[in-house]
UniProtKB/TrEMBL annotation:
It comes from Rhizobium leguminosarum. This is AraC family transcriptional regulator. The keyword DNA-binding applies. InterPro entries: AraC_XylS_family_regulators, Homeodomain-like_sf, HTH_AraC, HTH_AraC-typ_CS, Tscrpt_reg_AraC-type_HTH. The keyword Ion transport does not apply. GO terms for molecular function: DNA-binding transcription factor activity; sequence-specific DNA binding.
Length: 278
């Protein structure tokens, strides 16, 4: 049985979008694979590690990963449960136009300098709108193309995304903390518990995480929970149950956090994405 399933969601002259799900049965590093085209990959469920040479990247819902055509990589799953991602490829000339010069390798062919960027909540919402809309056949082709270009622009914007800058040692420490958070999104972790899992002091962990990701550890956890909520909204009628299942203390806490991040309450997002009847 294949570990992967791929569902084509959209293919036009401008944009190709695929929904890729991996069951994560293989925990060790895969054989080397090669990207056949340059694309942006948005994890929306679960977590995996992408290994490019000596560079390791934790792939989770707060990140966009860049896969450059012809670049070899390996995948591993340090946490059970597998993962799911949206793979988005756009016309190369348009991608060059959308990408700030400092983020691209001197070409041709076009390729990204970095392995990943942290995206903002609005970009996460665009990923969910695209996936839900195309999966349910409610998004028009033109609408989906424009949403996709908006998502790429936002994912590369200097004000709407963040490129972590840190030594390899500090990045690995932060990545270990991300894996701890991702291992149980609903758990109400304490700082000392996470620090103990990572193997450093609580003070050092908070300082390094803030320096590398430019956001506090607690907010990073909140955004992982909210990204999971975006994924699950189509499966829940009882939004109070969804919030509690994701570790929120109450429906009001869940709803307020969701609206602060995405500009809509969970119920409003459900209606906007046509995930439930009005």
């Amino acid at each position: 049985m294949s570990q992967f399933s791929t569902a084509p969601l959209l293919k036009t002259k401008t944009v190709t979008i695929r929904d890729i799900v991996c069951n994560g049965e293989c925990r060790h590093r895969s054989d080397e694979e090669c990207a056949h085209r340059t694309s942006l990959v948005y994890p929306y469920r679960g977590v995996f590690m992408r290994h490019v040479g000596r560079n390791d990247t934790v792939a989770e819902a707060n990140q966009v990963l860049f896969f450059n055509a012809g670049q070899g990589y390996r995948i591993s799953h340090p946490i059970e449960g597998g993962d799911a991602c949206i793979d988005l490829a756009i016309d190369e000339s348009m991608l060059e136009e959308l990408t700030p010069k400092e983020q691209a390798q001197p070409g041709p062919p076009f390729s990204f300098r970095r392995q990943r960027r942290r995206i903002d909540p609005r970009a996460q919402a665009l990923v969910a709108l695209l996936r839900h809309g195309l999966r349910r056949n409610v998004a028009e082709t033109l609408e989906a193309e424009i949403l996709a270009l908006t998502l790429v622009r936002r994912s590369l914007g200097e004000r709407t995304s963040h490129a972590a800058g840190a030594s390899a040692g500090r990045q690995k420490l932060v990545d270990r903390a991300k894996l701890v958070l991702s291992s149980d999104l609903a758990r109400r972790w304490t700082l000392s518990e996470i620090a103990s899992e990572v193997g450093v002091s609580p003070v050092y962990l908070t300082q390094v995480f803030q320096q590398v990701e430019a956001t506090p550890l607690y907010r990073y956890q909140l955004r992982l929970r909210l990204a999971r909520a975006l994924d699950l909204l189509g499966q829940y009628e009882d939004l109070t149950a969804l919030g509690l299942d994701l570790g929120f203390s109450s429906h009001s806490h869940f709803s307020a956090s969701f609206k602060q991040s995405f500009g809509q309450t969970p119920a409003e997002f459900q209606r906007a994405a046509q995930l439930r009847r009005r």
